[in-house]
Design brief:
The protein is α/β, with parallel strands linked by helices. The chain has one helix at 2-30; strands spanning 35-36, 41-44, 52-54, 59-60, 65-69, 80-83, 88-89, 94-98, 101-104, 109-110, 115-117, 141-143, 148-149, 154-155, 159-161, 166-167, 172-173, 176-177, 181-184, 189-193. Helices cover 15% and strands 31% of the residues. An eight-stranded mixed sheet has the order 1-4-7-10-13-16-19-20, with no helix packed on it. Strands 2-5-8-11-14-17 form a six-stranded parallel sheet. Strands 3-6-9-12-15-18 form a six-stranded parallel sheet, with no helix packed on it. Strand 19 and strand 20 (189-193) form a beta hairpin. The chain is globular.
Length: 194
């Protein structure tokens, strides 16, 4: 029995790795100018590749995880990912484009270990939070062009960042950041105009 369990675990791990390799290969084949580290994880429904739009010369660094699902059982809002020309997802970035749209504008950077989440769970007293439906009041993350989001930031659903803005490292953003401003903190607030 123990040998059978080991064999089953071995097969499951190999199947998972093969699936990840196939999904990543499909993204690279479809986007020949994409500069993507082989450790990046692309998690999407096999038929959902149409909801991933990648511009020219996009860079995806090591250990990035990108999750994109057109439909989920948690939300009626469709998922979509748009990465503009020359945008960058730095090491360890986590992008979760299910239950909303995540759009990263041209020449914009999500620095190391930043998280962008398109939808969040509804919270209700007495409910099982992990399996609850996702809120549809605030969805999606929109990052304009030439935006620099510092390391270890969290971009919550409903975030809108205007062109030419900067978000300081370690910030938590929810809501709107106008164009041409520096914001930082938890929660993020305006520091100055650029």
């Amino acid at each position: 029995m123990i040998i059978a369990n080991h064999f089953k675990a071995f097969v499951q791990e190999k199947r998972k790795r093969l699936t990840r390799w196939i999904l990543a290969h499909r993204i690279r084949a479809r986007n020949p100018t994409l500069l993507c580290d082989p450790t990046a994880i692309w998690d999407y429904g096999y038929h959902d590749i149409e909801v991933i739009e990648i511009g020219k010369c996009v860079s995806v660094a090591a250990f990035v995880e990108v999750v994109v699902y057109r439909q989920t059982s948690h939300s009626t809002v469709p998922g979509l990912l748009i990465l503009g020309d020359r945008s960058v997802l730095a090491t360890g970035v986590n992008v979760r484009a299910a239950g909303g749209t995540i759009s990263i504008g041209a020449r914009s950077v999500l620095s190391q270990h930043t998280i962008a989440v398109a939808a969040n769970h509804d919270i209700a007293g007495g409910a099982q939070h992990l399996h609850s439906a996702w809120s549809e009041d605030r969805t999606g993350v929109m990052v304009g062009e030439n935006v620099w989001v510092g390391a270890n930031c969290v971009l919550l659903p409903g975030t809108r960042i205007g062109d030419n803005s900067v978000v300081a490292a370690g910030s938590v953003v929810r809501g709107e950041i106008p164009a041409g401003e520096l914001w930082g903190g938890v929660p993020a607030s305006k520091i100055r105009s650029l």
